[in-house]
Amino acid sequence: MFANRGLEIKTRDQIDKMRVAGLLVGETLELLRAAARPGVTTGELDAIAEANIRDHGGIPSFKGYSHPPFPATICASVNDEVVHGIPGERVLTDGDIISIDCGAIVDGWHGDAAITVAIGEVADEVTELMRVTEAALWAGLAAARLGGRVTDISHAVEQYVHGQGRYGILEDYTGHGIGTEMHMAPNVPNFGRPGKGANLVEGLALAVEPMVTLGSKETDLLEDDWTVATIDGSMAAHFEHTFTITPDGHWVLTAVDGGAARLAELGVPFGGR
Ligand code: MG
Ligand code: MG
Fold first, then answer.
1. 175 Cα–ligand 2 center, Å
2. CB count, 10 Å around CB of 92?
3. What spacing in Å lies between the alpha carbon of 262 and ligand 2's midpoint?
4. What is the SS3 assignment for 19?
5. Residues contacting 267, CB < 8 A, separation 6+
6. What is the rounded CA–CA span in Å between residue 199 and residue 149?
7. Alpha-carbon distance 170 to 54, whole Å?
8. Sheet holding 168-169: strands in order across?
9. Separation CA 189–CA 246 (nearest Å)
């Protein structure tokens, strides 16, 4: 079990606390999904997120994170921006897509999740990109089993995406362990051979987050030192959930329903409460 050295293993009570943080993140993202429409700025979405998190006793975990300190509550990444976009004056227009990543801390425990939302009418291939990316996230979650390994998730994400058509999967950014910090060991890549990495055990919480493009998997870091954009200008989508596995089944801590509906479609037992 040396592969699990240094991992944070949570008690059931601690997982319950992570659910509080995760649910706040999930509910915040649903507010933002409803608010994201033509004419709204990314900064307005950020203000909605910060108010909702603070009103419910949470702390926005992205604000002040790293160097240079991230200045906002959400990451707002539009069109060819994949992740880590900084919200501001940009006005969303018909045909855009926006990836919104959100994190919150409640009572010391973290939740982290992301969605990509269409603004008005988007091209069919872009709708399909979003569908494929979200379904790849769920395929990854479904591949996780107690007694399995982290890259079982990675492999399932990659297999799903490549089974749907020609897409780029980012390799320079990964999912991660999560708990008392947002980013913890182990990394959870979105590609690779199964059966490697840490053992999937009860009490481990992971954020799984495929980042998929309509073109190249290669990205540039923009001059703001945060925004990650595709080098070829192709559109990109990003979906993320924080989850854990209990002896009863999966619990998607950042899904409003705990993942119950989607897991049922996939034939995966629901382990939440
Ligand atoms: Mg995130
Ligand atoms: Mg994350």
1. 6
2. 23
3. 20
4. helix
5. 142
6. 5
7. 32
8. 168-169, 211-213, 236-238
9. 22
